From TrEMBL:
Quaternary structure and interacting proteins, as annotated: Homodimer.
Reaction equation(s) it catalyzes: (6R)-5,10-methylene-5,6,7,8-tetrahydrofolate + NADP(+) = (6R)-5,10-methenyltetrahydrofolate + NADPH; (6R)-5,10-methenyltetrahydrofolate + H2O = (6R)-10-formyltetrahydrofolate + H(+)
All residue ranges annotated as the Tetrahydrofolate dehydrogenase/cyclohydrolase NAD(P)-binding domain in the record: 136-277
Name of the protein: Bifunctional protein FolD
MF term (GO), any: methylenetetrahydrofolate dehydrogenase (NADP+) activity
Gene that specifies this protein: folD
Amino acid sequence: MTARPIDGKALAAALRAEVAARAAALPYRPGLVVVLVGEDAASTLYVRNKERAARAAGFESRTIRLPAETGEAELLSVIAGLNADDAVDGILVQLPLPAQIRTGAIIRAIDPAKDVDGFHPENVAALALGAPRLAPCTPRGIFLLLRAAGVEPRGARALVLGRSNIVGRPMAALLLAGDATVTIAHSRTRDLAAECRRAEILIAAVGRPAMVKGDWIAPGATVIDVGINRGADGALVGDVDYQAALGVAGAITPVPGGVGPMTIACLLENTLIAAAARRG
Ligand SMILES: NC(=O)C1=CN([C@@H]2O[C@H](COP(=O)(O)OP(=O)(O)OC[C@H]3O[C@@H](n4cnc5c(N)ncnc54)[C@H](OP(=O)(O)O)[C@@H]3O)[C@@H](O)[C@H]2O)C=CC1
Ligand SMILES: Nc1nc(=O)c2c([nH]1)NC[C@@H]1CN(c3ccc(C(=O)N[C@@H](CCC(=O)O)C(=O)O)cc3)C=[N+]21
């Protein structure tokens, strides 16, 4: 048996086209601003992809690039300016931030109505209470991928590998809101392989190249690979041993071309949602 690949690139293109059509019908252009502090290679790539997608959707899109040595007070004042700017519907501060800046202080400073990452405590709380407002883009994109692949979370045993604030935790909350039976595994989990093997839906978000082996996967399971890692040859590798998984899983997302493009499409969708809520 060969697993069915889930084409995130195609689904993301469809969602982006839908967002562009909805944006074209508005009497204003939705505005998205990305703030990038320093020059982390992966972040630079992501920011470029995002800017291109936002422009193609007809958004007003801007990237503010600040030097790596920027202080917290300086970044807070940039955010205050964006909060006050009526043309700005969405603010995304690219993570990770340099060590001299407290990430929590920055996230709390963003107007929750413009928090298109869904990382502000108010938006996190809404999701935790089962009534998501602006949901984090990667988990939201994964949820849409599952739906498009015809995978029903309701009643399914789901395993989320990873508990970060940007992927693992919100992913678990969304799956729970979708009536899955959710387990969260992490670096202190005793028998990772055994936990994975029980899952009908396996979401890998650890940041370890090809850590999830073929024999960790239940036959027929749906495998979502969030990992974006650089292999020895510089190529992108996911968190799952893709070749091995193909022979066991029922469906699987590739890297690249799986979760990543959906993250960007959902960022555009969140910006549209934020704009509609702010501007009516
Ligand atoms: N495609 C996309 O759109 C996106 C992709 N990514 C990618 O997804 C991956 C994860 O990102 P992110 O959540 O930010 O990463 P973090 O490093 O913040 O979190 C990793 C999580 O994995 C757990 N973990 C790490 N090593 C192990 C191990 N050996 N065994 C078990 N658990 C382990 C950690 O456990 P503990 O908490 O115990 O330390 C932690 O909860 C990365 O490759 C990242 O590049 C991220 C965002 C978007
Ligand atoms: N505030 C904040 N929000 C984020 O959402 C956020 C962040 N910080 N920091 C970094 C991670 C990582 N991330 C990715 C998004 C898209 C791709 C992506 O487009 N990937 C494509 C292309 C990759 C390529 O061509 O190299 C793919 O997987 O097919 C990857 C990674 C968002 N993140």
